[in-house]
Design a protein that fits this description.
The structure is a single chain. By secondary structure, the protein is α/β, with parallel strands linked by helices. The chain is about 35% helix and about 25% strand. The chain has 7 helices and 12 strands. It has an 8-stranded mixed beta sheet, sandwiched between helices. The protein has a two-stranded antiparallel sheet with strand order 4-5. Strands 10-12 form a two-stranded antiparallel ribbon. A hairpin with a 4-residue loop joins strand 6 and strand 7. Helix 1 crosses helix 5 and helix 2 packs across helix 4.
Length: about 240
Amino acid sequence: MAHVEVHRDDIELDAPTLVEGLPGVGLVGKLAADHLVEAFDMVHYGTARCEGLPEIAVYSDGEPDVRGPVRLYADPERDLLVLQSDAPVSPEAAESFAGCMVEWFRSEDVTPLFLSGMPAERNDEPSLYGIATGDGAGLLAEADVPTPTESGAITGPTGALVHEAQRVGLTGVGLVVEADPQFPDPEAAGALLEAGVGPLTGVEVDTATLADQAEEIRQAKAQLAQQMQQGGEESTSARPLGFQ
């Protein structure tokens, strides 16, 4: 049965905010999520056991324990959750995955922040805007996050999550940032954290290491980014309507 398995019953959260970090354009969501987990030393809180997720075992350097590919990390001090993924969600599984996760969000009074990159070539700071589900527009206004400057759509598994949140009336926010369509984009991930996640959560996020390690991050994540490009709709993306 599809569900979220919670491993840490000793951790108490009060209407937490969740930052979603599925792989996508520029790997902006994944980079932002991974940075939060490391910066705040977040603990492994739960594992997504949703239908259709890849049945792979993930392990880390220096740690013998294996984990599922899609996990939740928690910081009870900040009432913060992060959805971290080490594998793409297939198009066939996106709908059931979204239903599984959004049902859990509702049951646990979670406010999700969905992150997505919009392919763009730029010479300056990446621009960012926010969209809303449920009563999320009020959160965007309070955090002074800009509204969209054009019509568009979010595709892939993040698009499925936003769609399901809107369908059931769950309050949530989608953050869309301009990102490099070919390579990991730490600068865009930093913009998401500084101009979006930080103001919406009230949590100060230091992104200096993202900037300092930009080239190292690009090299480390380049293979995953290439897989995302080849994966088509497995890769989360925001795009203007009519974009090909």
